[in-house]
Amino acid sequence: MARRLSAGVAAALLAACATTTTQRVVYTPLGAPAAHPFATRLVVVPFADGRPPRVYPAPRDSALRLLLPLVPSVTVDYERLDESRAAERLIRGALPQREDLFEDALARAVAADLAAARLFDGVELAASPPPDADLVLGGTIVSTRFVSSTTAYLLGAPGLLLWLTGLPNGRDTVEMAIDLALRDRDGVVLWQYPLRAEASRVVTLYTGGGHQLSTGAGGLSIPRYGDNDKGIDPDSLWAFHSEALRAGMAAARRSLAAYLGSRQRSMPPDA
To answer: CA 255, CA 271: separation in Å to the nearest integer?
Structure first.
């Protein structure tokens, strides 16, 4: 019975997966734009990658544990899903593109966020710092962890039947951690900020269509984000990463604005 129900659940998820998957990290920034930009030009460069090694476990053993009574939930951790996506595309005969990896994609989203915030006279993205840049923003990606947690309500196999009622069967969470650093044209660090934020969603058997990601080690279904008022691409594989970055950048931008204000006040009037 449990095996048939599990097969039915998998079939339902696959049937709900008729979406056009994109890989866009986009969102409408939180907060109002600055009234007066600071008279400097900012260049954002691709981030360094300081994440743990790629983790893409096969979920079969975890699913089997869920069938045991008194197991509260089963959690599966993933890291570097952008690299897993690139590996999947390579298996299908499509060459991975660097701009789809998080080192570029997250930096591009941060540059768009700061441009919309109008903190600077201009914001641009460059592969490397140009010699005439007033300020350069870079960073190190610490975590883009994706956590999938599933529960059978301590009942083991019979608990899967509760999923049919619409009760949550688990929760998906994205953890975003980037250490941002602002430097002058000489490379001196002027401002640092540890961006930390999460995005999470309860999942049910009837959650809207998902995105399937598989590289041969097992499959992962990421729920479709869906229509929203946050400017997030509803069909993006990285929609939850976009939500987490959006929240983290709101706090980072306030810190950066405070630094720029103090820097401007400390400069001589004719500087």
So the answer is: 23
Is the dihedral angle over the CA atoms 170, 220, 26, 126 positive or is it negative? positive
Q: Is the pTM of this model over 0.85?
A: yes
What the block records as the tokens of 231 is: 């400017």
Strands 210-214 and 219-223: antiparallel
Q: How many CA atoms lie within 13 A of 99 on its CB side?
A: 7
Averaged pLDDT, 182-194: 95
Going by pLDDT thresholds of 50, 70 and 90, the confidence category of residue 67 is: confident
**Assigned token pair, 5:** 């129900």
Helix, strand, coil shares, percent, the chain, to 5: 30, 30, 40
Between CA 271 and CA 268 the distance in angstroms is 5
Q: Using CA atoms, how far apart are residues 196 and 88, in angstroms rounded to an integer?
A: 28
pLDDT band of 208, cuts 50, 70, 90: low
Exposed, middle or buried by CB within 10 Å (0-12, 13-18, 19+), for 60?
exposed
Question: How many whole angstroms separate alpha carbon 128 and alpha carbon 107?
Answer: 12
Give the E-state strand segments of the chain in sequence order.
38-44, 48-49, 74-78, 120-125, 135-143, 146-150, 170-184, 189-203, 210-214, 219-223
Sequence-distant (6+) residues with CB within 8 A of 193 are 179, 180, 252, 255, 256
β-pair type (210-214, 38-44): unpaired
H or E stretch at 237: none
Residue with tokens 């083991």: 156
Relative orientation angle of helices 102-117 and 239-266, to the nearest 10 degrees: 50
